[in-house]
Amino acid sequence: MSSKLPINNAQTITDFLSLEPHQISEESSEESYKFAFDDEAFLARRETIGIRFELELLKPEILLSEHGIDHTITVFGSTRFVSHEKALEMEKSAQTADEKAKANKALLHSRYYESAREFGAMVAQYNNVQTEDSNKLHICTGGGPGIMEAANRGAFEAGDKTIGFNISLPREQHPNPYISPGLSFRFHYFALRKMHFMLRARAIVAFPGGFGSFDELFEVLTLMQTKKVTRFPVILIGKEFWSQMVHFKEMIEFGVIDEGDMKVIHFAETAEEAWAIIRNHYQLS
């Protein structure tokens, strides 16, 4: 019986770009004569994956430095939450029982959107009175909708620079409109995107979310637990949600984490509480 083991279990860049074998074969002299850095077909080959990793690391690093961005606060959370205004519109237009239930849930969760928006504005207001870039903390998100949009929006509306690290997905995720010009980035590789979430992060603020939010949160906690990064505040908004989803106390009692691992985690209910934790940690004026 022949093996059914896959040759590759990841979506390659050629898969993503829908390139056929003949498009990367470069059989003509016109194709082979191109400069390597100007040859998209060559750069899309499986063998050049290391180069693409390096480019996805290097491009945002250079541009963020050129914008004078040294420190960020990375905000995670659900893509599904909408603003209170949008939730009211959904409630008003709801006709069926299913639509009404969806609108009620949107209204309930809109408080997180508004809280993230308020948090972004608070950080921006702090930056607005700083004279040195080295003292500023900029809002950084995954660049998409929901909580990401809300945090970017709050900072953007308050006149601050705001960053979005978007990711290519099968159902394309478009950047939200509240990311500063020149600071909206697109990644193909989740690993490189996660690196940039952490490279300048001085705090993580995590609102209720799904698989993506949990993935990003636990990667951060693992890096701190294993001392791969300097410990900084990890703030979980909504203690009831996080305590129901993750039984931290039981994990300690079971012996899979230490009590000391929990020292980086802070629970908060409001934007004000979250910002106060960060201000106190860094003794910001």
Automatic annotation (TrEMBL):
Swiss-Prot/TrEMBL catalytic activity: AMP + H2O = D-ribose 5-phosphate + adenine
Keyword field contains Cytoplasm: no
EC number annotated for this UniProt entry: 3.2.2.n1
Keyword Hydrolase: yes
Gene Ontology MF: a single term: AMP nucleosidase activity
A Pfam family per the record: Lysine_decarbox
GO CC term (a single one): cytosol
One GO-annotated biological process of the protein: cytokinin biosynthetic process
Keywords: Cytokinin biosynthesis, Hydrolase
Protein family per UniProt: Belongs to the LOG family.
Protein name: Cytokinin riboside 5'-monophosphate phosphoribohydrolase
Organism: Polynucleobacter hirudinilacicola
